[in-house]
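Blinded run. Sample ID left blank on purpose so nobody reads anything into the name before looking at the predicted structure. Input follows.
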Amino acid sequence: MQSENCIFCRDVLGKRHAVFVFENDRVAAFMDIAPVEPGHCLVIPKRHFRDILDIDYEDYLEVHRVTKMLTPAVVRAVNADGVNIGQNNGASANQRVFHYHVHIIPRFIDREILWGRKVVLQRDLEDVAESIKSQLNNPNLGKIILK
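Blinded prediction complete.
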């Protein structure tokens, strides 16, 4: 079940505009095209659900399982000191794309926490995505202490 009006269903899952870091039969994870910080990824269910009130339990669990699996890879790939895991529901909560998704946002001690976004080059997204993917095979992946 996908929505033609949803940019994630149409452009991301339709493989038109996305740099993927992980994909399975239920979930896709890709680089945010306007990242808050380098390494900012999104994890989405492949089926269209508007928000947390709409998503079914199995897809919810898989999105969050993949988020937990990817987070250490993202942290290592960009040498982050911390990470924000975010999920917004409704326009009043700053949800901009109405397809359930989770943000993985790396954070750095020497940078002020800002929520502004900037568009980056496709090549830069691809480079970070490759680094994240390579970390998924790291046997010490889960052994990270955040600062």
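Unblinding after everyone has recorded impressions. The beta strands are 20-23, 27-31, 41-45, 82-86, 102-107.
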